[in-house]
Amino acid sequence: RKEVEQDPGPFNVPEGATVAFNCTYSNSASQSFFWYRQDCRKEPKLLMSVYSSGNEDGRFTAQLNRASQYISLLIRDSKLSDSATYLCGLTSGTYKYIFGTGTRLKVLA
Amino acid sequence: EAQVTQNPRYLITVTGKKLTVTCSQNMNHEYMSWYRQDPGLGLRQIYYSMNVEVTDKGDVPEGYKVSRKEKRNFPLILESPSPNQTSLYFCASSTDSNEQYFGPGTRLTVT
Prior knowledge:
Chain A has no helices and 11 strands. Chain A is mainly β.
């Protein structure tokens, strides 16, 4: 089983829709969790950190479920500019970092 | 401007010809890391460094070397590149292992 798994998509959604992605992980000792956004052929950029208590930033909400070992990202009122690949990342041990393969989102006009 | 820079951005080389990809950050970050990104495999960590003169292997270190002689620089060395090292490479830095800031990437082709 992979350490981190994501549905590759693509998720094709109309503008204004709400869309959610999940990312499951296998190492229960993982400490820190993140969502990154990556545009085509560009570097990943941090979207938000993920906490058990939930983390909201405008239209984006991230959640961590330690019992079921997954993190989620919810995007409300999708915009065309949200089209990108969303990578989940987590720490494995103190300094090792593991990423999922990413979920592609396409927001359609 | 706070940033991570990589050079070169694009490189085409031949099998066996040693090359170095440089990485530099101006944010005084202690932690730096190298990744390669391949279709269907995502971002995989090659090496990381917790501070000057302290490095460790990531998930795919074979065929790569790194050094960390100064805090700001973390070069990636391919002593004898092979075609299976054709990939998109990213350098990243952070104050610890969290919230990494990535460089713009280096697209390497080994023929």
